[in-house]
């Protein structure tokens, strides 16, 4: 094996990435983590995602590891020609620009297919072809369009999910499409266009509720107002103002919980003998449990629930995850050097392959760090 070989499954696959923000970069990161050479094309001055404030400040660091950075102005004749030369040496192209921009530049799928029939071309879009396809989309736009904000917030108060669920999921499906297209190209010798879209992602997330409506004829209530299938499946307040989710999804688990909480009166109540009976009086039962739980210490109770084999979870903030013992021990949270020379902790792909986690192979690229390396080799070819 080549001493520089990664031994990863996509080693030897070359990807050129024209992306920004979250969706397209997520696709490129997945492919890079799995061993592909991913060349990120940045405009002069660098991808503006690098300098986003507020909730966007972590986007670039989170979704651009293991990539090479090449600065290229594709809005100039020279830059465009160089881009086409580079594309001709790649297996996969990723893009997530607004509808029509790549076609306008001559970098759309139709134009490139004529030049490079083996190219796998991946567009990350707001919508697949149809009435909505020319609309601009954001994660929050499609969350509203596809029922996610309705299902997440209380009645009358739609609420977006607390992270870029559709952007990240869209990048995942783009990567899945690449894997399938690479396999198909082995058989046919031809590349193809792949489209992954935010709205369709969110519709898949809502599909269980769509089926619920079709099976019952009733509009599904938002999650805060849902009729739970289980009597004990909720977040409770405990001592010190802390919060803890507890689930008891079987009759046996309910009895075990009563034992942990020292509530034999609930365990021995014939009106609470079955889950169906308990669901029928759920509000009153939850109030009784809440009255008891508010006096329990969080850490002591967690230890008791763990020992009893009951489902539970602290309400954890993202900042606390940086010290999560399982993420660290399982190898899923690792250091990465930043362009500024410091170190940050990053979350790896949730995969274990052959006993190892695909990880960080080198520092996060500086703006244009690999321009000379990549374009120099291109011109020498």
Structure description:
The protein has 381 residues and is of the alpha/beta class. The chain folds into 2 domains: 14-205 and 330-380, 3-Layer(aba) Sandwich (Rossmann fold), CATH 3.40.50.10540; 228-319, formyl-coa transferase, domain 3. 40% of the residues lie in helices and 15% in strands. The protein contains 18 helices and 11 strands. It has helices at residues 23-33, 59-63, 77-87, 101-104, 109-115, 139-145, 148-152, 165-188, 198-205, 207-216, 251-260, 264-267, 275-280, 282-293, 298-308, 318-321, 325-329, 371-380; strands at 14-18, 37-42, 67-71, 92-95, 120-125, 193-197, 232-237, 243-248, 312-314, 333-337, 343-347. The protein has a 6-stranded parallel beta sheet, sandwiched between helices. Strands 7-8-9 form a 3-stranded antiparallel beta sheet. A two-stranded antiparallel sheet has the order 10-11. Strand 7 (232-237) and strand 8 form a beta hairpin. Helix 1 (23-33) packs across helix 8 and helix 8 crosses helix 9 (198-205). The protein is elongated and about 80 Å long.
């Amino acid at each position: 094996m080549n001493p520089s070989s990664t031994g990863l499954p996509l080693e030897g696959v070359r990807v050129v990435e024209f992306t920004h923000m979250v969706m397209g970069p997520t696709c490129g990161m997945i492919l890079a983590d799995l061993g592909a050479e991913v060349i990120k094309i940045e405009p002069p001055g660098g991808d503006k995602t690098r300098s986003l404030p507020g909730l966007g400040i972590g986007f670039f660091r989170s979704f651009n590891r293991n990539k090479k950075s090449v600065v290229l102005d594709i809005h100039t004749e020279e830059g465009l020609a160089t881009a086409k030369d580079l594309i001709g040496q790649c297996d996969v192209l990723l893009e997530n620009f607004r509808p029509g921009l790549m076609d306008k530049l001559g970098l759309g799928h139709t134009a490139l297919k004529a030049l490079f029939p083996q190219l796998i071309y991946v567009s990350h879009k707001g919508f697949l072809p149809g009435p909505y396809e020319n609309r601009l989309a954001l994660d929050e736009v499609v969350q509203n369009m596809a029922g996610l904000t309705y299902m997440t917030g209380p009645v009358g108060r739609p609420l977006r999910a607390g992270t870029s669920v559709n952007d990240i999921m869209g990048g995942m499906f783009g990567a899945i499409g690449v894997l399938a297209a690479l396999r198909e190209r082995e058989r046919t010798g031809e590349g193809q266009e792949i489209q992954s879209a935010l709205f369709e992602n969110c519709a898949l997330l809502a599909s269980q509720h769509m089926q619920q409506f079709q099976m019952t004829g009733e509009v599904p209530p938002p999650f805060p107002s849902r009729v739970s299938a289980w009597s004990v499946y909720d977040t409770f307040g405990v001592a010190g103002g802390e919060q803890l989710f507890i689930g008891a999804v079987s009759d046996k688990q309910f009895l075990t919980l009563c034992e942990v909480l020292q509530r034999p009166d609930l365990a021995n109540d014939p009106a609470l003998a079955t889950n169906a009976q308990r669901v029928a009086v759920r509000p009153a039962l939850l109030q009784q449990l809440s009255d008891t739980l508010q006096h329990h210490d969080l850490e002591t109770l967690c230890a008791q629930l763990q020992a009893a084999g009951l489902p539970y979870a602290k309400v954890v903030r993202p900042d606390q995850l940086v010290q999560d013992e399982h993420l660290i021990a399982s190898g899923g949270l690792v250091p990465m050097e930043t362009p500024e020379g410091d170190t940050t902790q990053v979350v790896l792909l949730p995969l274990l392959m052959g006993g190892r986690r695909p990880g960080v192979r080198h520092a996060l690229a500086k703006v244009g760090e690999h321009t000379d390396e990549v374009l120099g080799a291109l011109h020498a070819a």
